[in-house]
Amino acid sequence: MKQRLTVLGSTGSIGTSTLDVVRRHPDQFEIFALSAATQVDALLAQCQAFTPRYAVMASAAHAAQLADKLKQNNLKTEVLQAPDALETIASHAEVDTVMGAIVGAAGLAPCLAAARAGKRLLLANKEALVVGGALFMQTVKDHGCTLLPIDSEHSAIFQCLPEDRSTWAQRVHSIILTASGGPFRQRDPATLGQVTPAQACKHPNFSMGRKISVDSATMMNKALEVIEARWLFGMAPEQIRVVIHPEQIVHSMVQLQDSSILAQLGTPDMRVPIACGMAWPERISSGVAPLDFTQMAALTFEAADAVRFPGLHLSWQALKAPEGTTTVLNAANEVAVAAFLAERLPFDRIQAVNQATLAQLVPHERPASVAALLDLDAQARAVAAQIAQRWVV
Ligand code: NDP
Ligand code: MG
């Protein structure tokens, strides 16, 4: 039986890599539904190639354009248009697996819908977990959802951890996330205010979406990943450490009680963790060339510089603060990154917005529902947008 897949965010960097793996295994996977925000022609081309039953666009105007073009091309894919269309394609009875590859908190509701429907959920959309926190993991547990990490670090940790989760508390000492350090690892921190969006989006090893590229440059990506690891693996914040590894060959590590350390290595290409999640516990080819150790340069490791990367420690701070604080941090960062990409906020003020938002908005109640999470997210966006005004350029 083929696995039937919904790909949320299919036109993005993770979405297209996912479809590349699907294309290599037509006997094992078929596409049930695809989604995008604004790229109508890219989604049309994917509908031509994969003939999904449904396609979803983020706005009615884009949905209407796609529906027209599908008709002109005699394609049978139906465009679903409703506020909860993403949730529909994520939870449909005929879907086995959902790839969550939307960027930002916008992916929360559809990922939760997949979890509630007990799907196999391949999660790249780390913000959904950072926003959803305990509620997200409880939903996964209550509805028998199989949650498989796609973020390369978390896929590495998942592969290195003992298979029997009940042994982790006894056997696992800590987890070590590796970080590339991004494009400004060696740049004079005093010049970070002049960084342009194009410079920030030029990652040394990966071609990724613009938001995660900026997050990598500020190391907020690693801060979000510390929070993601806390929820995925149930580790205490003190059990999660970060080390810079510019070559990005070691994707992350697990330290056991006897100080043995297990690492997962591979060519830095997201198709590896994507193929791993798609086939788990089996293995399939990803289309990625394996490492050639005889051609490899030295692998190096260094500590993260707190002056250059002031956002990194915010993850531990937020995890120790009242529940909901990670939701606030994520919202602030989405607002700050969008302002930077629109050339309205200097690069070195992104963390100032994040810190000031955390200081101003302390959640008083545990967000106990999706509505409460989205409400807190909206409040934090409003606060962050106001704070960002201080540094408007
Ligand atoms: P991209 O920006 O490349 O793609 C995002 C996708 O989501 C696109 O299909 C986009 O549509 C769609 N989208 C954007 N905003 C919305 C919205 N408001 N509602 C519905 N759909 C939306 O991002 P990436 O693929 O780089 O990243 C996706 C997720 O995976 C992020 O959470 C990121 O942190 C995570 N991730 C990415 C990695 C990478 O290598 N890229 C590595 C590890 C994790 P459209 O194309 O029409 O704009
Ligand atoms: Mg990652």
From TrEMBL:
Binding site for NADPH: 11-14, 37, 125, 127, 209
Listed GO biological process terms: isopentenyl diphosphate biosynthetic process, methylerythritol 4-phosphate pathway involved in terpenoid biosynthetic process
Binding, 1-deoxy-D-xylulose 5-phosphate: 126, 152-153, 180, 203, 216, 221-222, 225
SUPFAM superfamilies: 1-deoxy-D-xylulose-5-phosphate reductoisomerase, C-terminal domain (SSF69055), Glyceraldehyde-3-phosphate dehydrogenase-like, C-terminal domain (SSF55347), NAD(P)-binding Rossmann-fold domains (SSF51735)
Domain DXP reductoisomerase C-terminal: 265-382
Catalytic reaction equation(s): 2-C-methyl-D-erythritol 4-phosphate + NADP(+) = 1-deoxy-D-xylulose 5-phosphate + NADPH + H(+)
1-deoxy-D-xylulose 5-phosphate reductoisomerase C-terminal domain: residues covered: 147-233
Pathway(s) where this gene product acts: Isoprenoid biosynthesis; isopentenyl diphosphate biosynthesis via DXP pathway; isopentenyl diphosphate from 1-deoxy-D-xylulose 5-phosphate: step 1/6
Name of the top EC class for this enzyme: oxidoreductase
Binding site for Mn(2+): 151, 153, 225
Keywords, in A-Z order: Isoprene biosynthesis, Magnesium, Manganese, Metal-binding, NADP, Oxidoreductase
InterPro entries reported in the protein's UniProt record: DXP_reductoisomerase (IPR003821), DXP_reductoisomerase_C (IPR013644), DXP_reductoisomerase_N (IPR013512), DXPR_C (IPR026877), DXPR_C_sf (IPR036169), NAD(P)-bd_dom_sf (IPR036291)
Entry GO MF terms: 1-deoxy-D-xylulose-5-phosphate reductoisomerase activity; manganese ion binding; NADPH binding
Domain 1-deoxy-D-xylulose 5-phosphate reductoisomerase N-terminal intervals: 5-133
E.C. numbers: 1.1.1.267
Cofactor: Mg(2+); Mn(2+)
Function: Catalyzes the NADPH-dependent rearrangement and reduction of 1-deoxy-D-xylulose-5-phosphate (DXP) to 2-C-methyl-D-erythritol 4-phosphate (MEP).
Family: Belongs to the DXR family.
Protein's name according to its UniProt entry: 1-deoxy-D-xylulose 5-phosphate reductoisomerase
Organism: Comamonas denitrificans
